[in-house]
Amino acid sequence: MKLVVVSAGLSVPSSTRLLADRLAAAVDRQTPVDVQVDIQVVELRDLAVEIAHNFTNGFPGKALSAAQQAVTDADGLIVVTPVFSASYSGLFKSFFDVLEMDALAGKPVLVAATGGTARHSLVLDHALRPLFSYLRAVVVPTGVYAASEDWGAEGLEGRIERAAGELAALMTGLAAARPVAKADDFEVVPFAEQLAALSPTSPSGAH
Question: Would the keyword Oxidoreductase turn up in this protein's UniProt record (predicted)?
Fold first, then answer.
């Protein structure tokens, strides 16, 4: 399975990237041993210029296009943003603004954020969940917010493990349920025949 981590941290090193890495490692641990997890990290800091150009010219650059394809092809996502003005960062939002509208439809997503104070923890529910619900992603029940005082605390570790377990379960469940279609598995019924079947005078439409 392919797990893509989208990190919107701006500094190096970044607490946002640290949280992203810990979440990814926890998902890997909680995935069944017979399932290999391919983890790819998308650092939005490195794509800022191409994202801006995409807004002005309508075309993604090479690196941005590769990141968009990785997100589209992923079996699951971890998305982590620093908090700016009580919401996600502009860079974080801009990346998802230039993504194809249906790219996240039905895709499991774990939302997470970092900030300087616990007062911003509601960003998960009032900003991140609505965004990814609008994009028709499947957001796992547990979001993870890490304030400065949370690092090293038992509560943060517990939330990381719980959220990672939920994402791993969704990813493995969807992968197991995904049908392998064959060309000869489909019966093509002409449109005229389908309409005829709905007609009140047809045997199948009679009551």
Answer: yes
Closest Cα partner for 81 from 94, 63, 98?
94
Q: What pTM was computed for the model?
A: 0.82
Handedness of CA 37, 81, 129, 120 (dihedral sign): positive
CATH 3.40.830.10 fits 2-205, yes or no: no
Residue 64: exposure state from Cβ atoms within 10 A (0-12, 13-18, ≥19) = buried
* Digit-coded pLDDT (tens) for 78-115: 999 999 988 999 999 999 999 998 999 999 999 999 99
Per-position b or e across 65-98, b if 16+ CB within 10 A of its CB: eebbebbeebbbbbbbbbbbeebbbebbebbbeb
Q: Specify the 3-state DSSP secondary structure of 82.
A: strand
Angle (CA) 142-144-148 rounded to 5° is: 155
Are 77 and 71 within 8 A, CB to CB?
yes
